[in-house]
Amino acid sequence: MICHRACASVNRRNAFTLVELLVVIAIIGVLIALLLPAVQQAREAARRSQCLNNLKQQGLAFHNYHGTYQCFPFGWNITGDLNGSGWPFQLLPYLEQTALNDKWDSRVPAMDQAAAIGFPAAAAASNLEVIRTPIDAFMCPSAAEDTVHDYGVPADGIDPGVPPVDLTWTAARSDYSATSGIRGDFASLAYASNPAASRSGVLWQTGYGGKSSCPRIADIVDGTSNTFLVGERLGGSNVYKLRKIDATFTAAAGPVQGGAWGDILIGEHWAQGSLYDGSIASSGGPCIINCSNGRGFGYFAFHPGGANFLMGDGSVRFVPSTIASYTFAAMVTANNGEVVSDL
């Protein structure tokens, strides 16, 4: 009898009570809660580093292109009726994408209706396959977006002489956009004391209408280390208002967002800013980074606190969203003679 009682006593001492188990679980939960932000920060740091590396690859491609043609690519280029491409297309051979570039037929537009309006069906299909191909160098891993999106232009937005049909295509996104220039309210705020200042960036130039003067390093009067070429702007056809999709603006302008690397409008981004809550006003606003990714409004990344930008010399800078409007404008514009100190 005494042995049984002793054994039972020992068993009771070795077991955990329900309260003790709950305390242990609570402690583990607190430790996980403390550890999770650190893990998320480490993951974001790795993603941001990869995003920065993407821009460095693009910088090398820009300079290799310049070495070949003695100028940078046009922001966007028209090569035929309905057919054009933005700066990413012109960099393909310098981003180890020669095979993809070789599949492209520059005489045929990449749109679903190309064969129906008289272009060769096989070439049209091949071009559509090309622009649907994701390219890691054009996608930031921090971006919370699908890889492939649908785009299009309504019939009433097409140049005269083109068959009056809606044009559509599906393409892989790009999270990097040309810094074509500044305009609207943002430009007015930035250059309030110098309204005559140029608003043009490096890649504002186009190959439209037979223009042949592509941008050269010598044209960057402000210096390549002080001037942007490309900045982060979340791709795809969704327009964001801060970190949430703006359903109204997406429905109205998402298809012409220029959010794909194979989309001609990726090279046409004269930013006029937005309001600080991400709202898009008709003439722009004071916020230029991480408020809206709308084409013609601002730059936008899922990195906390700012976005990465490629400089004319091939270096990359992380630009905080709190940057002064004048400083940002000076780094977009290429020939105002402005000297910009470190951010």
Give a written overview of the molecule:
It is a single chain. It is globular and about 85 Å long. The strands form five sheets. A four-stranded antiparallel beta sheet has the order 5-7-11-12. Strands 1-2 form a two-stranded antiparallel sheet. A two-stranded antiparallel sheet has the order 3-4. The model has no long low-confidence stretch (mean pLDDT 88). It is 31% helix and 14% strand. With 343 residues, it is of the alpha+beta class. It has one domain. The protein is built from eight helices and twelve strands. Helix 6 crosses helix 8.
Oligomeric state of the chains in view? single chain
Radius of gyration: 26 Å
Shape category: globular
- Structural domains: how many: 1
Q: Distance between termini?
A: 82 Å
Order of strands, widest sheet = 5-7-11-12
Helix and strand composition category = alpha+beta
Number of strands: 12
Percent of residues in helical segments?
Answer: 25-40%
How much of the sequence lies in strands comes to 5-15%
Global mean pLDDT: 88
**Strand-and-helix sequence, N→C?**
HHEEHHHEEEEHEEEHEEEH
Q: Largest sheet at a glance?
A: 4 strands, antiparallel
Low-confidence parts lasting 5 or more residues at pLDDT below 50? none
Number of helices: 8
Keywords: Membrane, Transmembrane, Transmembrane helix
Domain DUF1559: 40-324
Protein name: DUF1559 domain-containing protein
InterPro entries: DUF1559, N_methyl_site, Pilin-like, Pre_pil_HX9DG_C
